[in-house]
Amino acid sequence: MTIISLRPALAVATALLAGLLILLFGNKIKPNVREAITILAAVVMAAIVCSMVPEVLAGNVYEANLWTIVEGIELKLRTDSAGMVFACIASILWILTSIYSIGYVRGHHEKNQTGYFAAFAVCLASAMGIALAANLITFFIFYEMLTLATYPLVVHYRDDKAKASGRKYLAYTLVSGQIFFAAIVWVFVKYGTLDFVAGGFIEPGSMGAGAMCVLFFMMVLGGAVKAGVMPLHGWLPSAMVAPTPVSALLHAVAVVKAGAFCILRVVCYVFGPQSAAWCGAAEILSWFAVATILLSSLVALRQDNLKARLAFSTVGQLSYIVLGISLLSVYSITGALFHIAAHAFLKITLFMCAGAIFVTTGLSEISTMGALGKKMPVTGVCFCAASLGIAGLPLMAGFVSKFNILEGALLVGKPFAMAVLIAAALLALSYLMPVIQMFFGKESASAPTLAHGEPAHGNHPHGAAGGFDAAPLMLVPLMLTVIIAAILGFEPNAGVGLYDLAQMAAEAITKEGGVYLAG
Amino acid sequence: MNQWSEHLPVLIVLLPVSAALLCPLISKFNINAGKRTVISALFLSVICAAVQLIRVVKAGEPIHYFLGGWNPFIGIEFVIDGLNGIIILLVAVISWTTALFSSPYEKLERDGNTIRSSGYYTMIALLAVGLLGMASTGDAFNLYVFMEIMALAGYGLIAVGEKKGSIAAFRYLLTGTIGACMYLLGAGFLYAATGSLNMTDLAQKLVGLEDSPLVILAVACLIVGFGIKMALFPLHGWQPAAHSYAHPAADPMIAGIMIKIPAYAMLRFFFCIFSETSEVMQVFFDLIGVMAVCGILFGSLKALRYSTYNKILAYSSIGQVGYIALGFAIGNFYGIAGAVLHIVSHAFMKAGLFYTSGALKYRYGIHETTELGQVYRDMPVTSLTMCVCALSMIGLPPFAGFFSKWYLALGAIQNGQYGFVAVLIISSLLSAIYFFRVFENMFMGGKKAVQKPETAAASKKLEVPWQLIVPMLVAVCAIILIGIFNAYIVGDVLRPTVTEVFLS
Q1: What is the mean pLDDT of chain A?
Q2: Which chain A residues are Cβ-neighbours of B490 within 8 angstroms?
Q3: Closest residue in A to B432 (Cα–Cα)
Q4: Within 10 Å of residue B416's Cβ, how many Cβ atoms?
Q5: Cα atoms found within 13 Å of the Cα of residue B407, Cβ hemisphere only
Q6: Are A469 and A360 contacting, i.e. CB atoms less than 8 angstroms apart?
Q7: What is the 3-state secondary structure (H, E, C) of A61-78?
Q8: pLDDT digits (tens, 9 = 90+) for B42-85
Q9: A181: left (phi over 0), alpha (psi -120 to 50) or beta
Q10: Option in A159, A163, A174 nearest B432 (CB)
Q11: How far apart, in whole angstroms, are the C-alpha atoms of residue A421 and residue A217?
């Protein structure tokens, strides 16, 4: 049943309004009031999103037809189950990230905080729009908005390095965005509709297999760049020059997940498993994903900068989602969707830990972090737990999703994909465990030097002699995220029923046949 | 009341004409009264144009207005349909905002010189007259008259600009005259072929004459004539200098609409008068397509080479005019809708960008984008305008530029012209490069600009006087509103007009 309601639009509007208010009045009001706007908007948005969950779980959808955006197509928001998964994660994590941000930017004495919080809010509005968009043009509008809103965050420090990575980021995202745009127009001319349909609206055989492959990759390219599928991941490690909460947002919530979600929408809601399998494009995509998973883990091993290592880990983890989607079976798609959630909570914890370490001690290189666990025990434990989760150990959220993807691979008969998944889990352990070893090991020989991963602005209270661990505004959010990740590992349906939502979406997508064999 | 509204088409043009004539006279007595006459006359034109547009859309059919009551064979006819209703409103709005924008500028420069002040405003009003007339008229010779009025006022406004302005004006004078002559020749050939100059009449009499050499020659002359006036590649030679060195306050109008109205006139000729389905016209459309593609690429690439703000904008215009011509070359409904939408949205974008250029010159005397140095801290409204206009120019949603690109791409794919889509994309990306370079300087530049002493006192509270801020905000609002509600413009206003009048 479809419920016509403005609620989905309100969720987007809340964040947009917050961004606008902060931008207009940010410099005139006190920082506390400005941050109150952010947190208030985050809470309101999360409340709106979560209030829609019960109806969606019951099989209904909320729909907001706003107005005709181009002739023949409406600006339409719709809460289907897949969208709700993304929307829930984004809105809940926004609350935590904003609290963390406040601790971080104040602890680090950042400049331009107004622009920072405004861009943050707009990013979240776009992420919400991406999650709830009901057709390709609505999706594209929010997708490009996200690109634009993230740019100021990437170039936050406004030095040459930031400029260079800003350029790189734009080069990757704008080029792929424009190609995506051309593909959308093509689809509209050819099929006369742009509405997302679970299971896709492009019939196999409605165009030549070669042409369909080209169309498929023109669209997937838009998502693959943001999701960091190799060889399109180049912007992601460079974007690490941004402040850490931004990296946390980019790599756990907004940008990369939007990319993965874009691939999901294109493969499962535009093409549908049948067409994607028929033209052979899903097979090719799955090979890209497999290669990315392996290569990025190997590259991550060699990174000494903690944030860079986490960035390459993200590249790999995102390809799990892409692989899950491209396997086209009901389990793997459930796993992929759930991995959007699991990875979000786990990776945001890791980034928040990295940020907390950086603000508290000024360290950013792993080799200098010896015995840090003594000074920051809570951060160390949380980092450890989240690392195990990323590697996919049971009782953490990462296990649930990876097990589902594995099951999907088994069902479609892809032993190689299974082998890769298992190998990648071991690789993840091998690049994260050394960090934990450093934490709880001996004091490092080299004196703590100032970070060169992130330009040092402001003073670092080296050694954090006075306080215990990081500031509470940073510590509490990162503890919360890791606890949520653990709860989701025990009970994937805890809270808003993310697993059920993921499963509903996957079943709707594959409703006719159950399992599709790719290729 | 009813009687008044019947005379709206001519009233819109007549108001600025009388203001232009009265301005020097009134200025003799009170220098400010003269300029206020022009600004208020143009404001009344805006209101009249808005009312007229509503009337036309409601009536659902074109308004035919005979000047002086003479019937079209002898007299002049104004024809207003949904399409030029929008264009007339556009011209009126930008003329009014430009006149408003000029007033603090002109106050700085006039030194109590009455002739200078009144002359400037007279030219602004006359430029508006020429453009409004060109958009309203239904008579081929009358179009020539208005085109000359437009051009003469344009030469003046370019010449009173910066140092190199007079040379730029002379160059435009030479090429512009050739353009006007070409148009006159074309109209002459058409008269020779049909014995009529009324556009509706021409359209009927030209049926069956498509292959006649006279008509083919006429079409060729018209392409060159309009091509020069709209700065279509490779006939754009005069444009970069003219747009760069024109009077900074008049530049928004010169760059925003002076090159758009000839484009509109070209549309009117090619789709209303000639039958666009004939084989000969198809060849010409292909030719225009080639010119458009070359222009888009040339303009965008050339803009990359400059760091002078006005130069970037000028070369970007060459590319953007190519978009409009591309719409003609596509030639189906979406192509034309995209072209018209782009005429409107690009007028606001380019005018908006030249407003920011003017505001920067007013406050800091900045010409180079490298001098912008974090100017956004002191000039938030200007920076906002620049961002919105530039992002729209790149073609990013939800701004107007994205949607005109959408319709153009839609039309091109419908016709199977995939190459055009590729060109649109490449041009978007190139413009992203040059505009983000400007953004980098504006938000992250190192050098800080020093405020000009003579304007420091005037802008204590606001970044620049309100007369400069209002036009910028008008442009921003227009771009956002046109973007969000483009479907109503295309579906409710353009579709009935274009499918009935143009593609029948």
Answers
A1: 83
A2: 70-71
A3: A174
A4: 9
A5: 34
A6: yes
A7: EEEEEEEEEECCEEEEEE
A8: 999 999 999 998 888 888 888 888 887 777 777 888 888 888 89
A9: alpha
A10: A174
A11: 24
Residues in chain B: 504
Q: CB within 8 A of B466, min separation 6: which ones? A: none
Cβ separation B406–A185 shorter than 8 A: yes
**Terminus-to-terminus CA distance in chain A, angstroms?**
35
Helix residue ranges, H only, A328-396:
330-361, 372-375, 377-391
pLDDT of residue A461: 46
Torsion angle of the four alpha carbons B202, B204, B210, B216, in this order, in degrees rounded to the nearest 10: 0
DSSP character at residue A435: H
Length of chain A: 519
What's the CA gap between A177 and A170, in Å, rounded?
10
The type of residue at A331 is Y
C-alpha A171/C-alpha A159 separation (Å) is: 18
Per-residue H/E/C for A222-244: HHHHHHCCCCCCCHHHHHHHCCH
Residue percentage of chain B with pLDDT more than 90? 39
- Residue of chain B nearest A147, judged by CA positions: B396
B-chain residue closest to A112, CA distance: B377
Type of residue numbered B195: G
Q: Which residues of B touch A186 (CB under 8 A)?
A: 413
Positive or negative: CA dihedral B355, B358, B362, B363: positive
Contact between A199 and A509 (Cβ < 8 Å): yes
Q: What are phi and psi of A180, to 5 degrees?
A: -55, -45
CB-neighbour burial class of residue A416 (10 A; exposed 0-12, middle 13-18, buried 19+): exposed
Residue B63 is which amino acid? I
E-strand ranges in B199-270 read none
Most confident of A205-209, A311-315, B27-31, B123-127: B123-127
> B290: Cβ–Cβ under 8 A, 6 or more apart, which residues?
none
- Alpha-carbon Rg of chain B, whole angstroms? 21
Q: Among B158, B160, B102, B96, which Cα is nearest to B132's? A: B96
Q: How far apart are the first and last CA of chain B?
A: 35
ipTM of the prediction? 0.89
CB contact under 8 A, A158 and B485: no
CB A142 within 8 A of CB A126: yes
- Of the candidates B403, B407, B436, the beta carbon closest to that of A170 is on B436
CA B116 centroid distance within chain: 25
The set of residues, in sequence order, having a beta carbon less than 8 Å from that of A508 and lying 6+ positions away, is A80, A81, A198, A199
Q: Using a CB–CB cutoff of 8 Å, tell me whether A141 touches chain B.
A: yes
Residues of A in contact with B491 (CB under 8 A): 68, 71
Position A394 pLDDT exceeds 60: yes
CA B424 – CA B430 distance, rounded (Å): 10
Instruction: State residue A358's pLDDT score.
Output: 83
User: What pTM was estimated for this model as a whole?
Assistant: 0.90
- Beta strands B63-66 and A61-70 are unpaired
The continuous run of DSSP H or E covering B450 comes out as none
Nearest-CA distance from A407 to chain B in Å? Answer: 40
Contact assessment for residue A328 and residue A282, using Cβ atoms and an 8 Å cutoff: yes
d(CA B458, CA A101) in angstroms, rounded, equals 40
- Asked which of A35-49, A401-415, B304-318 is least confident by mean pLDDT, the reply is A401-415
Mutate to test the interface with A, among B383, B444, B484 (most CBs of A within 10 A): B444
CA distance A112 to A156: 8
Distance of CA A158 to the CA centre of its chain: 25
The helix (run of H) or strand (run of E) holding residue B454 is: helix B453-456
Query: Which residue has 């009117």 as its token pair?
Result: B268
A29's enclosing H/E stretch is none
